[in-house]
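Ticket #252: bound-state structure for zinc ion.
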Amino acid sequence: MSVSMILHLPHASTFIPEDLRQDFLFSDQELLEEVNRITDHATDAIFQQAFPEAKAIVFPVSRLVVDPERFSEDSQEPMSQVGMGVTYTRGSLRQPLREQPSPAKRQALMERYYIPHHQKLTEAVEESLLTNDHCLIIDGHSFPALPLPYELNQTAFRPDFCLGTDDFHTPEELVAKVEKILESCGYSTVRNQPFSGTIVPMKHYRKDERVQSLMIEINRWLYLGEDYSVDSERVEALIELLRRVGEVLEKN
Ligand SMILES: [Zn+2]
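RESOLUTION: The complex was predicted; output attached.
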């Protein structure tokens, strides 16, 4: 596999740091249920095993603490309309999650988690550009089989794989190749529905065509039980499938 591949895995962690637990307006049981609903379970293991030579940038805490996939400014971030900008105040059922953090608290969370994460991603991209003059970011996620109340798009068809693209950073032939391999293996794919876009560091966003990016969202019904247990056999099958995607991308 090309060493110029970077995995961005923002939503796999279930970890809530102890000193931040009190911020959440939930009982332990409610918090556990919310973490279960909102986490892209096992996507760190799945994508890293499928693309073992890629450099992985894995967010170390739950997206309930800070969501690294959001724009840092709420004015740029559509999800802030539903209380789910970079620091959520509402949960996936649109229930109150925590008080709006003060500007100082918000800044502290950004400096502790968001900024270092994005720095790592930007540095990995820079390094890849220096050595390979090219870089492909795979933004790895999973999504629930049925829409959660917070989702902006409630009616879209839920395919096996949702592929998020960017007009500037996702070449047509790249996404077409991925669609072809997934569909030839019997899986359904849709572009940018129910989730759209793919991550690119702000430094390169819409400026540097050498930085390519594709979001791969796995429908959780492919590997997760209703009790959020991970089905290891189905995970193996998924890893095998994504390895084939990696082989195709390698020839990109
Ligand atoms: Zn996600």
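RESOLUTION NOTES: The mean pLDDT is 95.
TICKET STATUS: resolved
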